[in-house]
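Hi R.,

As promised on Friday, here is the backbone we talked about, encoded as structure tokens. Could you run it through your design pipeline when you get a chance and send me back a sequence?
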């Protein structure tokens, strides 16, 4: 088990990619703190991990609530003595172009997709510095490197995550801390509902994917989880400040 005895915090781990990432870390020996705003979803992820012999605990909170997030991280550090891995995954899609997007939606997108990543990393960094090691993965998106039709809030925030990741990596490599970004492409999860609605339904989005993605299909969450495992483990020990795009080839066309 390549993550044996490590403590990992995964935000947005109650469903989809976050859930799959938490599960694969637990499978590889990490104790995983499952963070999600839904207590029910967080506890379901913990239950699924425990059923397979893994170790996990639920931490239900809204990552955009600075006080709740700070208290949650402090409690983890108190009880476990440190945090080895932070995967900032919680995020949201807000549809609309410059004139159509709701300003409140843009602000909400920034708060969740960027600021919450910043705050969680800020809160774990002192303990990682003291330990002389640590890994942070920030989830961006293929929309962080591409144009994404009428999704200005989403693309703006996901581009920002990449810039923030590179800045963190450069500033903290000297402390033995690695920071990378994950850019998933089309992954079949409920997260895509806003864009599916915008495109005109499931059949329309699947036709779009067949046309735009060279591999011609969605990714599964398990495929993305393998990339997460690579980034948080020593398999990527000489990799920091990098952007791992897992998109079925969409960015090469």
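Update: got your reply. Pasting your designed sequence below so it's all in one thread:
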């Amino acid at each position: 088990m390549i993550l044996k005895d490590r403590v990992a915090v995964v935000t947005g781990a109650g469903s989809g990619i976050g859930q799959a990432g938490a599960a694969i870390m637990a499978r590889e020996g990490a104790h995983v703190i499952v963070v999600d705003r839904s207590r029910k979803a967080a506890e379901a992820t913990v239950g699924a991990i425990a059923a397979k012999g893994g170790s996990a605990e639920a931490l239900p909170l809204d990552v955009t609530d600075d006080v709740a997030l700070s208290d949650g991280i402090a409690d983890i550090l108190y009880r476990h003595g440190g945090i080895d891995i932070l995967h900032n995954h919680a995020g949201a899609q807000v549809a609309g172009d410059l004139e159509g997007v709701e300003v409140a939606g843009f602000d909400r997108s920034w708060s969740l997709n960027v600021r919450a990543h910043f705050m969680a990393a800020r809160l774990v960094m002192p303990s990682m510095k003291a330990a002389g090691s640590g890994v942070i993965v920030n989830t961006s998106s293929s929309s962080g490197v591409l144009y994404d039709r009428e999704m200005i809030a989403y693309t703006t925030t996901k581009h920002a995550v990449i810039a923030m990741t590179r800045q963190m990596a450069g500033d903290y490599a000297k402390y033995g801390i690695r920071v990378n970004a994950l850019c998933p492409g089309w992954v079949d999860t409920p997260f895509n509902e806003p864009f599916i609605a915008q495109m005109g339904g499931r059949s329309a989005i699947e036709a779009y994917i067949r046309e735009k993605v060279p591999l011609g299909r969605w990714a599964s969450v398990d495929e993305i989880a393998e990339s997460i495992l690579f980034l948080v483990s020593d398999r990527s020990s000489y990799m920091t400040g990098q952007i791992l795009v897992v998109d079925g080839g969409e960015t090469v066309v």
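One thing I noticed while checking it: DSSP finds eight helices and seven strands in the chain.

Thanks again,
M.
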